[in-house]
Design goal:
alpha/beta, single chain, six-stranded parallel beta sheet, 16 strands
Length: about 400
C-alpha cells in the first residue's frame, strides 16, 4: 500500500505546484505543508476507519473436483487481499447462486485448472479499497456489481474495468449479471424473435427463465412457461406468461401437442433430458431451440443427461429447424449493452427481477457465506422462485465521508 500512497501523493503534489504561487503566505501559515508520504491520505485507498476491514476473511475454496458442491468446496479463513493498481476491493453484500456453480467445481469449464481455486461467479457490494489507477473511476463507498470468479468470499478483488456501477446494493441488480444477461443476449443473437411467434421457456420461474419470459413478451410473442408448482404458475402469469404449465399436474408433451398443433417457434431450454426431447418434438417449421444449459444432468458424473438423439437429424431436417447453443462467455462483446439496457428497464419498472433469499427454505434465509451450501441444495431441489441469492453480510455502519 505504501507504493500506492507514494505515487498518489506525488501526482497530487505535482498538481498543487502550478497553483502554489497564487496561494498567499498567510494561507500557507494557516495550512502547514504536508510530507509527500501522507498516511492520513491512505483512506482514499483502504477505508480502514469507515469500513473496519479485518485482517482475515472467509471464502469458499474448491479443494476437490466434484459436481457435489458440499464435497468440492470448503470454507477457509485467509488474509483479506490487497487490490492492485487497477483493482477494487469489494466487500460482498450479496452473491448469486447459479446452476453452473457445480460445473465449475467439477472442472468442466477449464480442465487445465486444478484445485485449489475460488468459487462463485457474481457479487454486489461496496468498494472498501482500490488501487491508484482504479481511483480515477471509483472511490471508497461506491456500490458495484461484478461477473467474475471468486465471488463466494467476504471480500473480493475485482478489476475496475470489469466492475459495473450500480445505484445501490440491491440483490435485484445481481439477477441481471448472469441470469438476465443470458436471456437478453441469447434472444438477441440467436432467437430471431418475431411478433406473433410462440415461445416456450423451460424452468420459466427460475433465475434466467423469468427474464426469458419477459423479453419474449416484450418482443410481442405468445409465451408458454413450464414450472413445478401453482405458486410458480401464478408468478409467471404476473410477469406476462400467457400459458404457464405446471408439469407436476399436467403432461407437458400432451398439453403442447393439443394446444399448439402448429408447433413452437422458439424454445429457451435449460433443463435437458426428457424435457429437451419434448421440446424438439414440438418444434414448428423453421423452429429454433436455444440450449442455455441442461441442469437435469449437472449433478451426474458426466454432467450430461441421457438423451435419445438418434433421430434428431431427421426431425430437424423435416422441419428446417435448428438447435443453437449459448454460452455467455462467448458473447462478452454484447454484455455491456445488455446490462445497461436491463438496468434502464428495471429503473423504469419495466422489468421484474425476482429474488429468492431462502426465506421459506428449511433453515431460513440464506445469510452468511456458510449459507451458500444450503442455497445450492435449495436450487437443485427445484424449490426456488426467481434468482437464488445469499446475503453475505448486512449493511455496514460507516461515518466515512469519502
Amino acid at each position: 500500500m505504501s507504493s500506492l500512497l507514494l505515487l498518489r501523493n506525488s501526482v497530487r503534489a505535482s498538481s498543487v505546484i502550478g497553483g502554489v504561487r497564487r496561494v498567499t503566505d498567510a494561507l500557507l501559515r494557516v495550512h502547514p505543508r504536508r510530507f509527500i508520504i501522507d498516511m492520513s491520505y491512505s483512506a482514499h485507498f483502504m477505508d480502514f476507519k469507515g469500513s473496519s476491514i479485518p485482517s482475515t476473511m472467509k471464502k469458499l475454496v474448491v479443494t476437490k473436483l466434484s459436481p457435489n458442491f458440499r464435497e468440492a468446496a470448503s470454507m477457509q479463513t485467509v488474509a483479506v487481499p490487497t487490490p492492485g493498481d487497477a483493482d477494487l476491493l469489494v466487500r460482498n453484500r450479496f452473491v448469486g447462486i447459479n446452476a453452473s456453480d457445480i460445473n465449475y467445481t467439477a472442472g468442466r469449464y477449464d480442465p487445465s485448472v486444478k484445485p485449489p481455486f475460488d468459487a462463485g461467479f457474481e457479487g454486489i457490494g461496496e468498494v472498501v479499497g482500490l488501487g491508484l489507477s482504479a481511483s480515477s473511476r471509483y472511490t471508497i463507498g461506491d456500490t458495484v456489481a461484478y461477473f467474475g470468479s471468486g465471488a463466494f468470499a467476504e471480500y473480493t478483488v475485482v478489476p475496475a474495468k470489469e466492475s459495473v456501477p450500480v445505484p445501490s446494493v440491491k440483490p435485484e441488480f445481481l439477477t441481471l449479471l448472469v441470469s438476465g444477461a443470458t436471456a437478453y443476449i441469447a434472444f438477441k443473437r440467436l432467437g430471431d424473435l418475431a411478433k406473433g411467434e410462440t415461445v416456450l421457456v423451460t424452468a420459466a420461474a427460475g433465475g434466467t427463465g423469468q427474464f426469458a419470459v419477459q423479453f419474449a413478451k416484450q418482443a410481442g410473442c405468445h409465451v408458454i412457461g413450464t414450472c413445478s408448482s401453482n405458486e410458480k404458475a401464478g408468478f409467471l402469469k404476473s410477469i406476462g406468461c400467457d400459458r404457464p404449465i405446471n408439469y407436476t399436474t399436467e403432461d407437458l408433451a400432451k398439453t403442447l401437442r393439443k394446444e399448439y398443433p402448429k408447433g413452437i417457434d422458439v424454445v429457451y431450454e435449460s433443463v435437458g433430458g426428457s424435457v429437451f426431447e419434448v421440446a424438439v418434438n414440438c418444434l414448428a417449421n423453421k423452429g429454433r431451440l436455444i440450449i442455455i444449459g441442461f441442469i437435469s444432468g449437472y449433478q451426474s458424473a458426466s454432467g450430461i443427461p441421457q438423451l435419445r438423439g438418434g433421430t434428431l437429424p431427421v426431425k430437424l431436417l423435416q422441419r428446417s429447424a435448428s438447435i443453437r447453443g449459448f454460452f455467455l462467455p462467448h458473447f462478452i462483446s454484447d454484455y455491456r449493452e445488455a446490462l445497461g439496457s436491463m438496468m434502464q428497464m428495471f429503473a423504469k419498472g419495466k422489468l421484474a427481477c425476482e429474488v429468492d433469499c431462502g426465506d421459506l427454505a428449511e433453515g431460513g434465509r440464506f445469510v452468511g457465506l456458510e449459507s451458500v451450501f444450503r442455497a445450492v441444495d435449495y436450487m437443485y431441489a427445484g424449490k426456488n422462485l426467481g434468482k437464488v441469492v445469499v446475503e453475505v453480510a448486512p449493511p455496514s455502519v460507516s461515518n466515512c465521508k469519502l
